[in-house]
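REQUEST
  id: r-88c1
  op: predict_structure
  target: MBL fold metallo-hydrolase
  payload:
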Amino acid sequence: MSMIKVVIDRGIHIKAHGKYVLIDPTGVPGGKPDVVLISHAHEDHYSLRALRTLYKVPLVMSRATQLLVDGRGRLRNVLIVEPGQEVEVAGLRITAHEAGHIIGSLQFSFDLGNILVVYTGDFNLDRRLILRPAEVVRGDLLIIDATYGSPKYVFPPRAELYRAIVGRINEVLESGRTVVVKGRKLGVAQEVTALVSMATSLVPLVERSVAKYNELYELLGEPLGRYVLWDGGGAAAPNSVIISRLGARRTGSSETIVCTGWALRKGFPLSSHADHVQLVRYVLDSKAELVVPFTGFRHEFSSFLKESYGIEAHDESIVELKL
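RESPONSE
  id: r-88c1
  status: 200
  body:
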């Protein structure tokens, strides 16, 4: 039997058998980890300041994540890994797996003694117009995203959402108005770009803050179809479709369509995260003995797993486990 300690505090800190693995740090750690793993380039999963202080520690991430996090290449201690690849760092064998969340997003698995740890990061199991879906990785200890861990967050099938979004766009255009489709600028906005371009005869206008990420997707082999850069200057022509970030201001007499997992009742719950159903499916298929949800509705998700399936799940910020 082995002891392992998991601390959720501005990142995921995992300690066992004299090793310290730090994942997705959003603050400077109190001690020096043996290795740092970065799952993806959303800013709630890394701090560039923290990474700069860890200049003597190997930083494991994908090429896409490196380009997004450190485009100027100032971090000299980055170790690039892609899905399906295994690297040995600080005496640990670390395997990267597809996460299907945004470009370059990864899951990680690694052995700490005789404990196989799996960290999902943010992930999505859906087959979408862009990116490969996440794979379910089996392990002993599963540390899993719970952004939409509440049972109320169940999203419609992707194909149904696509049809509904395109249908609403066409309705608005037929009325002679402009449509503004809003999504997270890195993630959902690229999926919406591909949807409008590939499922309609329209060429969408893409806001600059979104277009810079579109360009990276295409550079790394994710085609998004036809689109035109829109700098926001002046009014868009009638019957146009504009794709913008979630926080963008309303444009003239346009109608706004919001695409986010939080839009269960108003808008379209198109998300790059797993919903509650996907989260449960992942846990069951992973065959993990212990589950530690992080972020979002982790308390609700832990309770659901215990009550519905008798799974040992922990929602504390500090967890000491025996395996």
